Amino acid sequence: MAGIRAQQAKGKKVLISLGGANAHIQLNTAAARDNFVRTMGDIIARYGLNGLDIDLEGGSLALNPGDTDLNNPTTPAVVNLISAVRSLKARFGSNFILTMAPETAYVQGGLSSYGGIWGAYLPLIHNLRSDLTTLHVQHYNTGSLVGTDGRTYTPGTVDFHVAMTDMLLTGFNLGGNPAKRFPGLRTDQVAIGLPSGTRSAGSGYTTPADVQRAVTCLTSGTGCNTYRPGTTYPALRGLMTWSINWDRADGLNFSGAHRPFLNSLP
């Protein structure tokens, strides 16, 4: 608690992150939902936290067969989590921060196929978009993915980061069906999730120079490679990294390179 207060005294926000690779969490019943709201709310209040980061992995969110309506999902684990987050937001007010750090399959993967884990975060993101502070999809530990231009892009490249980010801002068709579309998010709601170094993720590490090329492409339209965004996004939220501990262990290679760059943007 003292550590949290010390960071907050510096003007930093401290969130509790829910999930991760080894925490399989599903709210499959109303009772589980209510218990989650009560216990998580009490933890947040006790520690004086500023918000919640949803980082569910490992199949914790998977759409049931036939659950294809983005506006009205039917999978209990999805429906109950949406309800639970709304309850926490109501308890702690408008300043309560909500972030999400999903894997690519659960978000951009919904372009190629919508069902199961593919696009499973999209109903959560869509139905909570008015409450969402930042979405920072993990552009690491992932395979190649198709962009809205129909081309396949490889992690760790300028094109991958630009294509995957542009998709979230312009919107895209679920499973390629133009009748079912995920509307784009606000620019200030989207950040790029990156590994801090070569040791912190199995794949997706991108050199600082290429990360900054991708951000410059998105924010000003210059420095692009093959993929060019439909417009520029000067209000892009920024960068997320896994993790600050790995970054320190690697000599602050991530924050040392990117903090001055981000500060220099208009």
TrEMBL record:
EC number: 3.2.1.14
Keyword flag Oxidoreductase: no
Keyword line: Glycosidase, Hydrolase
InterPro entries in alphabetical order: GH, Glyco_hydro18_cat, Glyco_hydro_18_chit_AS, Glycosyl_Hydrlase18_Chitinase
Domain GH18: 1-266
Tree of life domain: Bacteria
Any single Pfam family the record assigns to this protein: Glyco_hydro_18
Enzyme class: hydrolase
Similarity field: Belongs to the glycosyl hydrolase 18 family.
Annotated protein name in UniProt: chitinase
Organism: Deinococcus multiflagellatus
